[in-house]
User: Fold these one by one.
Assistant:
Number 1:
Amino acid sequence: MSIDTLKSQIPDFAKDVRLNLSSMGGDESLTPAQKYGLFVACGIASRNAVVRKALVAEAAAHLDEATMAAAKAAAAIMGMNNVYYRFVHLAGNKDYKTLPAKLRMNVIGNPGVPKLDFELWSLAVSAINGCGMCIDAHEDVLRKGGVTTEAIQTAVRFAAIIQSAALAVEAADVA
């Protein structure tokens, strides 16, 4: 399966989603590792098997094993962190901010790929999962690392497109 196969599964009522998937596939503003790592991390974060399979298959030809594993790790670790830190941020009891998280997250410190690539993927997954604390933290690291506003915006745009593709595929099955 590929992006083209995925586009063929997007119904006509979501034509804009198909067009956005096309533009995402042709985007050359990020490095291949950044771009295809986003496909993997956000495809997994979409929680839609059709989207995940299509984007992981598309990325497989462009990523080595270590980069593929790191993109999967970004989705997994943000799945945990986004729940926890969204709770800490939203809870009325501010004492939670003073407590240690007690969550293992060693992969963030040693992802096996360039740190800024991993941060970009983590930011995009955090946007899908709606964790403001994580969005702020990852965007701060990226900005301090010299990543441009445009690259950060592109990563989040990819996340938005991928999430909308998952919703369109699911909506196609609604009677």
Number 2:
Amino acid sequence: MTIVLVHGAFADSSGFTAIIERLTAAGHTVVAAANPLRGLTSDAAALSALLASIDGPITLVGHSYGGAVISTAATGNTQVKALVYLAAFVPELGESAQSLVEKFPGSTIGESLKPVPLGDGQVDLYIDPRVFHPNFAGDLPAGAAALFAVTQRPATGAALGEPASTPQAWHSIPSWNLISGADRIIPPAAQEFMAERSGARVRVIEGASHMVFVSHPDETVAFIESAVRESK
């Protein structure tokens, strides 16, 4: 079983370092995908191409916007045996990350974004470093949050606003959903709604920020490993 990790917006694969260290030490094969963050359809196509290069069964893990990407990329892929969502979007056909985050109160994402206009009329979105710690990574030490703020990668506004345009893989592939109980980006109520709708196995980590996999690596690894075991 290969575990494929897919980061979300305002992050990159280096955020999975503690997770990768623990999984590989336990003998798992791990691939950390580079999510382009340019558009849901194109991001899913890039991930699909990567998945096609992997032999054998796959457990696919997505954080935040990465959840929307894995939900699309895994559709029709019989190698993918489990979907694991970490504080993630789990859209239905026609839903976007933006529409889901607006479905419930409590998100600070609107006030946190710092837009950078691009030459093609698009806009790149960053989390303003001044609020990255309290709004995105509230349960991390300030120094660690500051490093993540500096190294964040932007997502386009189009990516976060693009609705899922194909049937979603969670309808046919078993899913696991790790909910961050103090999330200020995707409200816990929104995460719970998506998890229940998808019929996922659920664990809630109380007090966890949107970066739950960084602040609670042992619990996150145990959750991923449970998906690996139960999907064999």
